[in-house]
Amino acid sequence: MRQFAPETLDAALYRAPAQYEIERRNIFGRSWLLFAHESQFAEAGHYVATSVAGYPLIVVRGEDGTLRAFHNVCRHRAGPLAEDGEGRCEGQIVCRYHGWRYALDGRLANARDFGPAEGFDPRAFGLFALRCEIWRGFVFVNMDAEAQSLSETIAPLDERARELPLENFRFWRRQTHELRCNWKNYVENYLEGYHVPLVHPTLNEQIDAAHYTVEVVPPAMIHWAPPRDGAPMSGLWAWLWPCLGINVYKDGLMMERMWPLGHDRTVLDYLFFFPEDLAPADRERPMQSSGVITAEDVRITEAVQRNLDAGIYSTGRLSPRHEMGVAWFQSQVLSATRQP
Ligand code: FES
Ligand SMILES: [Fe+2]
Fold it and tell me: Is the peptide bond before 242 cis (omega within 30 degrees of 0)?
């Protein structure tokens, strides 16, 4: 039976700064984003700060043990609060510009040497708060106060991941790769196995790419390919809108964030997790194989980006056999783009 082959998104959407501004607001500003792991916040004051799609964000553990998320931006004159990375602040978050101090729950505790001022109510100048929810130890944030809860959003994926011993994994290492391509280009590459025989020769020996499937369970997707002997990638291989790859190995896990740095640059921000008692040598194997696959994907997506930028190609067609995951992703991008 002949199936419908959807048209791809217009190439202009992969190179226009104005489109990226819409995506920042309507996609990254409204979706659940994997930010950190609970184990990174052992005590009150421990924080993780990172920018996502140009939004500086921070999650910090409060004196009451609660994890809270904020924009990492001072309410005085937009000064920088915590530096990007992990650390611990002693009871308060201090702005590095003029020294305003915020309690760990976001309240403005002290506007340093501000002077008597009429009409200035410190209670109105607490940090901009975000949603922060946890799924099986993974800390997600959402900038949209109206968004559906994380547990509802992640339910289709949770169902598939129920058997996996995610709680046994401990955070091991973060690794980043920067590349010159639009973030959608990299995500789409992640959402199909059609390219595996040409782009990933080693992976192609480990899986049966002819039977590679991508099942769409909105807002997630589940990849599956029959493994051949010794495949390090066997496990769950999934993805969550808008840009989170979930790669479960036999003995470990890599959470793959594909975050835009602008309309033309993307950072792959990987978090590796392993069982506590796994020997370092056994951690190297999946890390190495992920490094090889990443390098192959970076090469091809950067080449695609140069062609999208060249202005010859505008749209193509998606394979109904292999690229229905890409089609779903593109339909979501279009509908997010049309929202006010
Ligand atoms: S901008 Fe933060 S104290 Fe001035
Ligand atoms: Fe790939």
Answer: yes
